[in-house]
Amino acid sequence: MYGGTLRAVEGALDGCLHVTCLTPASLEHALGVIYGQSQDTTWNRTVATVGSFLRWCAASGVIPASSVLPTSLPMRRKVTAERSRGNTDLLAFCFDENLPLRDRTIWCLTFDLCLGPDEVLQLDIEDIDVKKKAVRVNESLLFWQPFSSGLVSRVVADRPAGPVFLADRVRPPSARRLSYRRAAESCRFFTGHRLGDFRSGGLTYLQERGAPLALIRTRSTALARPAR
Q1: Is 210 buried (19+), middle (13-18) or exposed (0-12) by CB count in 10 A?
Q2: 54-57: which pairs have CB atoms within 8 A and are 24 or more residues apart?
Q3: 89, 100, 112, 228 - which has most CB atoms within 10 Å?
């Protein structure tokens, strides 16, 4: 994600390409050339990526700590989220490899299982069966579709237990569960949508395919931890 964005910006710079040669004007020009006509969420994500890189450069002494560059990036755009019944756009976010794997998996399971995002965030590795492609719900298994499998497997990796979705920069054994607030902020930032929009999109997906009402209702039941 970060490498692709930074390489694209580098390609749009004129003259010296070393980070010490950057000026607010040259950086704004490069961002405008590559991302000026992009969607608001893409623009904001790019500005955040470049800003994170420059702050790292300042903290590492690559550029002066007093450099104005990290604080002189172009303004982020205001994103107006539209409640969407369409499924294509929502699923496109889930499959966008430029977006964080953890967040895409949350969105995909929320859409696929039609569970509340808070329920998805409460999942522990013990609650899911990667081989069966299922999660335990009130004494029964709720199976996810193939498009979720690759994401879930990568997030779980070889961890034997603990929260499925971990907070940023935290690894076992001191792993902390990702909070709803942080997940919601990330979803809004990267997609312009609310977490709940993915559940609504999943329910619409089932309805459009003529799924029985009983099935749709079971997809919204609260999670119950399986017996150990």
Answers
A1: exposed
A2: 54/19, 54/22, 57/19
A3: 112
Other C-beta atoms lying within 10 Å of the C-beta of residue 157: 7
The CATH classification number of 88-218 equals 1.10.443.10
Q: Which residues of 12-32 are buried (b: 16+ CB within 10 A; e: fewer)?
A: ebeeeeebeebeeeebeebbe
Q: Where are the domains of the chain?
A: 2-71, 88-218
Q: Find the farthest-apart pair of alpha carbons in the chain and give their distance in angstroms, rounded.
A: 64
Q: Minimal CA–CA distance to 112: which of 204, 183, 185?
A: 204
Higher pLDDT, 228 or 74: 74
The two tokens of residue 44 are 């904001």
Find the helix packing angle between 195-208 and 88-95, rounded to 10°.
Answer: 120
Q: What is the pLDDT of residues 204-228, one digit of tens each?
A: 877 777 766 666 656 554 443 333 3
- DSSP states along 155-172: HHTT--SSBSSBPTT--T
Please indicate whether residue 115 or residue 1 has the higher confidence score (pLDDT): 115
Task: Check if the beta carbon of residue 86 is closer than 8 Å to that of residue 177.
Answer: no
Question: Helix count (H) and strand count (E) of the chain?
Answer: 10, 3
Measured CA distances, 82 to 17, 120, 202 (Å):
39, 23, 16
